[in-house]
Model the fold of this input.
Amino acid sequence: MRADRTRNLISHVVLMFGVVLSIFPFYWMVVMASNTTPDIFSYPPKLVIGSHLFENMGKVLDNIDFFGSMLVTLIVSVAVTVLVLFFDSLAAFAFAKYEFPGRNWLFGLLLATFMIPAQLSLVPQFVTLAEFGWIGSLKALIIPGAANAFGIFWMRQYARGAIPDELIAAAKVDGAGFFRQYLTVGIPVLRPGLAFLGIFTFINVWNDYLWPLIVMTDPNKLPLQVALQQLNGIYGTDYSMVMAGALMSVIPLIGVFIIGGRHFIADIAAGAMKF
Done:
């Protein structure tokens, strides 16, 4: 009994240490955002939250159209997330529960795209969108990200274990077609996996910098990460202002993670209760 308590104590100490390590970068960002640039470079460094947070946030709002860029980023992030959840789960449902010619070959080809660095597709993708006349529009940010190999792979693996074949057979007996099976059988069971994929996709799109920097030529439609880059001066940088902008951009992600994570955990718990 004493040995079990000791192991539990050690496990809790290690977990708490890991939590502190995980939270410290965010806390350090708050510290830098709430102090001045000279304070950031002082020695020893300040580890307490300062009194200049709202002043630095005001500087961010004075230098860039923060809320306009946030709206652009929000529109793109929501649109891409919705499209990814639909197309990836639909393809994954077909790969996991249906037999069709070339299924394994197509899935292998899909997995092979993981080995191609994303940077190699930038030029052909840019040329393609230029031919469509989409450069500078939000379509250039939304359409290329409407589906991805990781989402299909993740949802396919989840669907194979989560959706019993008996449910599919029962739906077929009731006369349900493919889309009805997907909506009435697949979606309810896949909700935990969709919650994770939604959080993952939303955060990735929100934080994307390289592709928006290349395709967005209209200064009035700059996504948030590209707009924040403008806070870096040519001859000098107010790092406290930059960190304040980074902090402001992270706050919506925390809300998304809390809301999505709660649904993710609730769905898993509900599934565990059923089984």
Notes: Confidence is low (pLDDT under 50) at residues 269-275. Residues 110 and 232 are 39 Å apart (CA to CA). The chain is about 75% helix and 0% strand.
